[in-house]
Design brief:
Blueprint (H helix, E strand, L loop, with lengths): L4 E7 L6 H21 L4 E7 L2 H13 L3 E8 L9 H5 L5 E5 L13 H6 L2 H14 L5 E4 L5 H21 L2 E5 L13 H8 L2 E5 L1 H9 L3 H14 L1 E2 L4 H21 L3 E3 L14 H8 L3 E3 L4 H13 L7 E12 L2 E7 L14 E4 L12 E4 L5 E10 L4 E11 L13 E5 L3 H11 L4 E5 L4 H11 L2 E5 L5 H17 L1
Parallel strand pairs: 1-2, 1-3, 3-4, 4-5, 6-7, 6-9, 8-13, 9-10, 16-19
Antiparallel strand pairs: 11-12, 11-18, 12-17, 13-14, 15-16, 15-18, 16-17
This protein binds manganese (II) ion.
Manganese (II) ion (MN) binds next to loops.
Length: about 500
């Protein structure tokens, strides 16, 4: 994981005297240290804030600190909230209000008015909560005892969503070629996306990539092929195709790294000068945490990179996915997802195989090498970002991935099979009603709640299709959302 950190800002005031403030500071430090041992990122105690200036100063510092991905506040005592207004109003980092208490239990014999004044989070956190509500601030409220594992999980999940905000604000996407001709859902307003999400989406010529490819050495290819062999089974005699994919991967990676890009897109309609659509190349780049979108879909590419960064160890099981075809047998209703080549091996149930097959679509002179595998079983989500004109909508659907119910021996690509919530047909009706794309990010380790938190922090619309969603309720929600977002 990168050097990310979060800051612990504790609210108090002068009313209780220096002894109470010393105790608050001592305990806050202890809590930050203990929590840092169990959270995915360090929580750094910063200040016990008692004045408007202390709060404003720490917010300014947080805004300009590249390592700080968010602040977590807590009020051990009462902390009058008018002194928080100037600071909070200028906060540009994710914000979590942690409503907790130093002691777990009320000590029956010990409790007196001094104890009450020192340990009044129940009181102080309400005052603190009001001002964020009044300021209409995007925030996460987490309540619970600070030593409880389920509280740690909630904070950890929020921290990862906040890291997703950081990655988003630094996102650069390298586009090779434009979007696939005539396709609507992969389009989007690149100025709006940069304003709202921070993404820098720009184009590079396929010719530049071909030039970079011709500079790749045989030795560079040899060493990447060795890495392929260590991670995947070779199930083809066509070593030229594997070497060609290695050359493509090395060239794409060099170009992305030199520009600081974490995501890329290309299209089969624009491969002039290349023998093969990058398949294995794109798949192995995704395995390293880069985002990818087919057919020029830069939105899904950037979102893939962000969700990977939000996952386990900063490169989780999240991947570019496409809804392909349905199995509609009653009681056995499933979606089959895949892509023409580019499915990330982080989804694989077993060790992937490298195969070569003819690819009829696009301008492939030669058969491209690709990784073929089945997706893992388990609970997951699919997520789609669409441009509604004037605003972005993030659609998230709960799914359950299953072992594909048939071997499909002639299908030459990686495949994932799942049951969408609430059931296949209602789920499809909901997805289509909301305008969700055929391209998604499928993730096993980022939750819908994390995507909701991310959408809130990015200030974009969030739609969640769950086991309880009905088409009727969703239609009403979308209608009201439309009104609400037009008023903003
Ligand atoms: Mn596609």
């Amino acid at each position: 994981m990168k050097n990310y950190e979060f800051w612990f800002v504790v609210g108090s005031q002068f009313l209780y005297g220096p002894e109470v403030l010393e105790t608050v500071e001592k305990r806050a430090k202890e809590m930050a240290e203990e929590l840092s041992k169990v959270l995915p990122f360090p929580l750094i105690y910063k200040v016990t804030a008692k004045t408007n200036k202390e709060i404003t100063d720490i917010v300014k510092e947080a805004n300009y600190n590249d390592k700080c991905c968010g602040i977590i506040t807590w009020c051990h005592t009462f902390s009058p909230s008018k002194m928080w207004i100037n600071g909070l109003a200028s906060l540009q980092k994710p914000y979590c209000h942690f409503a907790t208490q130093y002691n777990r239990e009320i000590p029956n014999d010990e409790i007196d008015m001094d104890f009450m004044n020192l340990n009044q989070a129940a009181h102080g956190d309400r005052e603190h909560g009001f001002i964020a509500a009044r300021l209409r601030m995007p925030r996460k409220v987490i309540a619970g005892y600070w030593k409880d594992e389920k509280v740690h999980k909630k904070i950890a999940d929020w921290m990862k969503a906040a890291v997703g905000v950081h990655v988003s604000k630094n996102m650069k996407v390298m586009r090779f070629g434009d979007n696939m001709r005539e396709v609507a859902v992969t389009e989007g307003d690149k100025v709006e996306v940069q304003t709202k999400l921070g993404w820098q989406v720009n184009t590079w010529a396929v010719g530049d990539l071909v030039k970079e490819m011709s500079a790749v050495t045989e030795a560079e290819i040899d060493s990447l092929v060795e890495i392929y062999k260590s991670k995947y089974d070779i199930a083809t005699d066509n070593t030229d195709a594997i070497r060609y994919q290695a050359k493509e991967e090395i060239a794409i990676k060099k170009m992305m790294d030199s520009e600081g890009c974490l995501a890329f897109s290309n299209t089969f309609q624009d491969l002039y000068g290349m023998e093969q659509l990058p398949g294995l190349a794109s798949q192995h780049l995704m395995a390293q945490g880069y985002g990818y979108g087919g057919e020029g879909d830069w939105k899904v590419s950037a979102l893939t990179a962000i969700m990977k960064a939000m996952g386990e160890n900063g490169n989780g099981s999240s991947a570019f996915m496409e809804d392909y075809t349905y199995h509609l047998a009653e009681g056995q209703e499933y979606s089959l997802g895949a892509h023409m080549l580019e499915v990330c091996p982080s989804l694989a149930a077993d060790r992937p195989r490298i195969e070569t097959h003819h690819l009829g679509i696009g301008m492939n002179e030669k058969d491209p090498a690709r990784l073929v595998f089945e997706g893992k079983e388990g609970d997951a989500i699919v997520v789609s970002l669409v441009d509604m004109g004037g605003r972005l909508r993030l659609i998230c659907q709960d799914i359950v991935c299953v072992k594909p119910i048939m071997p499909m021996p002639n299908l030459p690509v990686a495949r994932v099979m799942w049951r969408a919530m609430p059931d296949l047909t209602t789920g499809v009706e909901c997805w289509i009603t909301a305008g969700g794309a055929h391209h998604t990010v499928l993730s096993y380790d980022v939750s819908a709640e994390q995507m909701k938190d991310w959408a809130r922090m990015m200030d974009i619309e969030f739609v969640h299709i769950t086991k309880d969603t009905s088409v009727d309720a969703l239609e009403k929600e979308l209608f009201l959302n439309d009104l609400a977002w037009k008023l903003r």
